[in-house]
Design brief:
The chain is an alpha+beta fold. Among the domains are: 1-43 and 429-486, no CATH class; 205-320 and 329-345, no CATH class. It has twelve helices and four strands, in the order ααβαααββααααααβα. It has helices spanning 6-19, 21-41, 62-84, 87-101, 107-120, 140-197, 206-242, 246-265, 274-293, 301-310, 333-405, 431-470, and strands at residues 46-55, 121-127, 130-137, 413-418. It has a four-stranded antiparallel β-sheet. It is rod-shaped. The two termini are 13 Å apart.
Length: 486
């Protein structure tokens, strides 16, 4: 067996290429332009991408910090990728697109649509907390919308643990605020009802009631003084009317006048003179009349009233002299007594009213300490509830701000480094790659055609040689044996 000479093989290949040069050029001229034309006719895809940075909380151990963050992020991004590409999330996109296109998808079509959508999503972890999200489809607007939807879902799932903690605290605070608000309303209503129920027994009215009490005491003292004077006047008039008689007083006056006349007559006449005897007899009759009219005991008010009505004409001795032409009407002692008694009754009623008012004021003022303690307790409860409500309201607002703004440094944050933009140009391989691929395909096709042509020529040549030597018709050949020296 002769050894294989590479030089001869290469020489034979070059000879074949020279003979079959036309087969080498034809595929190149056909496939390269055809490849470009076929590439342009293929459906074009648009790709949109975005990059985000996930900042994890800081750790106390600086040696394990980088490793811990890297390991945690990789595991979390893997879980987030599974969540974002789940049937539940991608099903929303499929349902939204079907609703926009006004199509109804059966479960099988929906399943295959979700699988096709999942192949278009690409989530890559680039290191240092940098994550890239890509989405490719044939419509630029749909590509951008779907990528933004996936980005929102990714960020939502990334921040979900922290938001859940903040949301739970916010929900707890909101429940506590509602409960405390109801307590505050109940306490304030109790305080308001207490003030409305006891409006005159509040500390604010203590000074007013005290001034009213002092004023009533002064009025009561004045009424007592007036009543005392009216009682003295009544007693005086009563005693005067009890032991007095208008007829008796007139007789006494006549007696006094007669005694004066007798004393004057004694200076002119003797005691045996008839004129003197007549005067003495008249004086004796007056003394007898006075003895007859003098009462053995005092009259009652009823007897005085009856006597005054019977002997009203005798009241003239009590009238004062007129100051003018017309006689002045003056009050009789009995009328004065009646007026004094009426004044006493009126003053008694006034004093009774003053005593009732003073007792009410005393009751109010004695109830002040108890009312004040109860009122201070209600005010203190309302103040405590109000302060707690304000503090919880402030904490609730801070929790809402914390949930919306993520203001704490120790919390996880997601920052969009490169936002998604609307793809304007389709995603296509570069021209050198297309040209190289077409060239390689044309070369492979040329080699295949040359090999087929050479094999066919060799088989035809072998059949002719065999038919010439053996003078027979050759149907086919099975290769060629190497040249062996006979």
């Amino acid at each position: 067996m002769t050894p294989i000479n590479p030089v001869e093989i290469i020489q034979q290949l070059l000879d074949i290429l020279k003979r079959r040069f036309d087969l080498l050029l034809i595929p190149a001229f056909v496939l390269i332009p055809g490849g470009f034309m076929a590439f342009k006719k293929l459906p074009k895809n648009y790709k949109s991408s975005t990059k985000i940075v996930i900042e994890e909380p800081k750790h106390s151990n600086p040696f394990l910090e980088r490793f811990t963050i890297s390991t945690r992020l990789k595991k979390r991004i893997l879980l987030l990728t599974n969540i974002v590409t789940s049937h539940q999330v991608l099903g929303r996109i499929v349902d939204r697109d079907a609703k926009a296109a006004k199509k109804k998808l059966d479960p099988r079509q929906r399943h295959y649509a979700i699988l096709g959508l999942r192949r278009k999503i690409k989530i890559m972890y680039l290191g240092q907390g940098l994550v890239q999200l890509e989405f490719a489809c044939r419509v630029p607007k749909v590509c951008l919308d779907n990528l933004n939807f996936i980005l929102n879902q990714f960020m939502t799932e990334t921040l979900r643990p922290q938001k859940q903690a903040v949301t739970r605290s916010s929900e707890f605070l909101s429940k506590q605020i509602k409960r405390l608000k109801n307590t505050l309303k109940h306490t304030e209503s109790r305080l308001m009802n207490y003030k409305q129920k006891h409006p005159l027994e509040l500390p604010e009215t203590y000074k007013v009631n005290l001034n009213a009490f002092i004023h009533l005491r002064k009025q009561m003292m004045k009424a007592k003084i007036k009543m005392a004077s009216a009682e003295r006047r009544r007693d005086f008039l009563y005693q005067k009317l009890r032991f007095s008689d208008p007829v008796l007083d007139r007789l006494k006056q006549k007696k006094t006048a007669l005694q004066i006349k007798i004393s004057q007559a004694q200076m002119r006449y003797t005691s045996r003179h008839p004129f003197m005897k007549r005067l003495k007899a008249k004086l004796a009759s007056l003394r007898a009349a006075i003895r007859r009219h003098t009462p053995k005991k005092g009259r009652s008010l009823k007897e005085i009233e009856q006597f005054m009505q019977w002997g009203r004409g005798a009241d003239a001795i009590y009238k004062e002299a007129p100051s003018g032409d017309k006689p002045a009407r003056t009050m009789t002692p009995f009328e004065r007594l009646q007026k004094a008694m009426i004044d006493i009754v009126v003053l008694k009623k006034k004093l009774k009213g003053y005593e009732i008012k003073l007792s009410v004021l005393k009751q109010r003022m004695s109830a002040y300490p108890k009312r004040e303690q109860r009122l201070e307790k209600l005010k203190r409860e309302a103040t405590i509830s109000r302060n707690l409500y304000v503090k919880l309201r402030t904490l609730y607002e801070e929790s809402l701000l914390r949930r919306e703004l993520e203001i704490f440094d120790s919390s996880r944050r997601v920052l969009v480094v490169e936002p998604a933009v609307l793809p304007l140009f389709p995603v296509s391989p570069k021209k050198p790659i297309v040209l190289g691929g077409a060239f390689v395909a044309s070369m492979m096709l040329s080699i295949l055609l040359i090999a087929i042509a050479e094999l066919s020529d060799q088989s035809v040549k072998s059949s002719r040689e065999a038919s010439g030597i053996f003078d027979a018709e050759v149907i086919g050949s099975f290769g060629r044996l190497p040249n062996v020296e006979l």
